[in-house]
Amino acid sequence: MARFSLRGFVYVLIVLLGLVSAAPNILPQSVKQHLPLWYTSSTLSLGLDLQGGSHLLLAADTNALFEKQLDSFATDLLSELREQNIRYTENRSLRNDANTHQVVFTLRNAADARTVEEAASTVSAQPAGSSALEVSIKQNTVTLTLNEQYTKQLLKDALGRSVEVVRKRLNETGLTEPSVTLQGKEAILVQMPGMSDPSQVKSLLGTTAQMTFHWEVDSRSGSSMTRVDDDGNRYQLEQKVALEGEHITDAAGVLSSETGQPVVTFRLDSAGAKQFGAMTQDNIGRVLAIVLDGKVVTAPVINSAIPGGRGEITGNFTLPEASNTALMLRTGALPIPLSIIEERTVGPDLGSDAIQTGIESGVAGALLVLIFMVAIYGRWGAIASFALCLNMALVFGALTLFGATLTLPGIAGLILTMGMAVDANILVNERIREESRKGRPPVSAIEVGFDKAFATIVDSNFTTLIAVSLLFMFGSGPVKGFAITIGLGIVSSVFTAVALTKMLMLRIAHAKQKNARDRTPLHFSSPLLALSDKLDGINFLAKRKVALSISVLLTVLSIALFAKPGLHYGVDFTGGTLIELTSPKLSTDELRQVIQRSGFSQITIQEYGSEHHYLLRAPVAADTVEQGETSSNAKQIEQLKQAILEADNAVVFDKVDMVGPKVSGGFTELSILALLIAGAGMLFYLWIRFEAHFATAALLTVILDLTKTIGFFALTGLEFNLTAVAALLALIGYSINDKVVVLDRVRELLRLDPSRPLADTINHAVNSTLSRTVFTSLTTLLALLPMAWFGGDAVESFAIPMVFAVVIGTSSTLFITSTLLFLLGTRREQQGKAQLKPTAEEIKASLAHIP
């Protein structure tokens, strides 16, 4: 008894921890003000799709970084060779077949090769003693490339510094809590809550702001370069940098006291001021050009020495442009060029609507599930419903504790979690019903029922967890949030169903058996249970050929639909831009005329939802596809938005999604990879837990379910996006979950009576789990239907296909998995093999009989 009490104490402690973690999300302000700030501030943060805001994914131009660094090393090396009087010709930069930048030059004397290698090691020496340059010399041709280990470290350092520069720039603009994080190996993710128009921020983040000072070429100059200004004037400048912009400590955009024109004033640090004073004193009468990101901003003639480290940059600035330039100079130059490859913007009104519909559909689904459980199992269903409510509270607590972000797909994940969490409770209650019908007293029936259900619950939930973990590994943004929610929900539901519910049920059963003579078995009675009991005895294998033929035919038709008309891919996979807007003053024709007058002939317009609500789709610009960048596409979208604003100043851009070809191509590859790995991972797990023909039957059925669901997407024209991929992976987990329950019962029955005909065993297993299969499907549908009905456009690519998947997955469990298992099992019998491998106990018993 003491052990049970200790266990109960631990369970209660876990529940209290979860409730305490979740509480700050719902506590009123009047209560929060009396509690510590560290506690009340630990609330669940909302995703941009719920609170509105902008999400930008910035890709680093690694080629530019590596080329610049290699050219710098090459310049130093060639300068060193000249000092040592080593002759060379044909200095040029190019790319090799692997698209790696390299510098090539030819030595006049092959005997100088050793000297070149030593000089290269010297000019590119690293702190660890290694060299950043790799030198390849064939005959007289010298090829310089960067060492692979050095490029990795260079990129890592550049991205780390870029994150800090981006964060400083955003903080300077006064944004509230912008999030700047590294994503992958070559990208930076920027999230800005509450910002519905990120055009100004995009110009800040897309500008490197690398400022350098160069003298105009004269007779003393070495290598030169040509640069132009905004008016097209060309300047022949020294390639050598006279002063780096990194010496700037402060800058401001102001109106000039002399001309009244916007200028940028700057101040240098002490080292920069000293260097600037000396260089201007030694070069009076020369032109000093200030170059910002490769363009000449101003090129004044130095008439006298400039001490004090203060200067002024004049140009064709507007005051906002001068202020932005000053901001970028203050925060420092980006060490690596960044381009926007993905943009997602949600207006605050759309975000609040998403919260409302998400909460309404979630509450409606949860209430339907709880009512249904009570209707089936009475007070035992009430216990399960109480455990489900605690399960949801624990999930919220865990999400808050781990600092997760709740997105709209995350709400969908919570709803699906509730629907799937019911499965464990139904499985347990059905097992307890079976044991009670055998005449077991309440405590014994509960103990045995939980013991028999435990392995099945673990197997079915673990297979689902495999699919969910892949979503987390390969997903992006909201899809990853969905995966986290489902994953935490699975762990929490197993705990509440197996541990907490058992403890509560046993307490009630012990109270009922206080009198030792009162050992009356538990009685479950409801119209639904009575109806399910009448369904017992169905021969699911009788029409196996017909069922399998229909399933294969539907799969073939689905494949045909996939080929033509095909899937309606979203911008996640095709690339391009999708804009949702509300224009009170423009009709569809007027909006189309505005767009065409602005030169955007490829944009399609669709009236969407309510009146004056439109959906615009723009493909990726042709030059963007060729260059693999989205800068031109981003500029075109800004021009389009400006043109619409001029026609209707009351227009509201509710949502903007822009995905470049590089990102969309990555999404496609990762989605296919995730589906393949999910199938392989589940097959491997099932092969470990079950025999090969069990695992094969389950996996083949899931493949049939998957193809039909893809055909459903093609038939209905629902947008196939990342949320749809989440639905497919959720389907795999849910469908396998369903099949594992039946397979587990078949295995149990085969161990009890191996001599029984396989068809009878399979039919008995399907019938004995029929009520669980039907009830689980119904509860999942009850959880999903409100979300599919009024959950909103953001989750329709998930909710509607999942409703279809539940129906198709349930029917395949009953008819297709059983048929495939029978066919594979019969073939196994013909080969003279047993249906099950012997257990460790059976092997031990057989060995004991050997003399």
Describe the structure.
A hairpin with a 5-residue loop joins strand 3 (88-95) and strand 4. The strands form seven sheets. An eight-stranded antiparallel beta sheet has the order 7-8-2-18-24-21-23-22. A four-stranded antiparallel beta sheet has the order 3-4-6-5. The chain has a four-stranded antiparallel beta sheet with strand order 12-9-15-16. Helices cover 59% and strands 16% of the residues. The chain is α+β, with helices and mostly antiparallel strands and 851 residues long. It is a multi-pass membrane protein. This is Multifunctional fusion protein.
List the helices and strands and how they pair.
Blueprint: H1 2-22, H2 29-32, H3 37-40, E1 45-46, H4 48-51, E2 53-60, H5 62-83, E3 88-95, E4 101-107, H6 113-123, E5 133-138, E6 141-146, H7 148-172, E7 179-183, E8 187-193, H8 199-205, E9 211-215, E10 224-228, E11 234-238, E12 243-244, E13 248-255, E14 262-268, H9 270-282, E15 288-292, E16 295-298, E17 310-313, H10 319-331, E18 338-346, H11 348-377, H12 379-401, E19 405-406, H13 408-437, H14 442-474, H15 478-512, H16 527-534, H17 544-563, E20 568-569, H18 571-574, E21 576-582, H19 588-597, E22 604-607, E23 613-618, H20 622-627, H21 631-647, E24 652-659, H22 661-689, H23 692-716, E25 719-720, H24 722-752, H25 758-768, H26 770-790, H27 793-830, H28 840-848
Parallel strand pairs: 1-19, 20-25
Antiparallel strand pairs: 2-8, 2-18, 3-4, 4-6, 5-6, 7-8, 9-12, 9-15, 10-11, 13-14, 14-17, 15-16, 18-24, 21-23, 21-24, 22-23
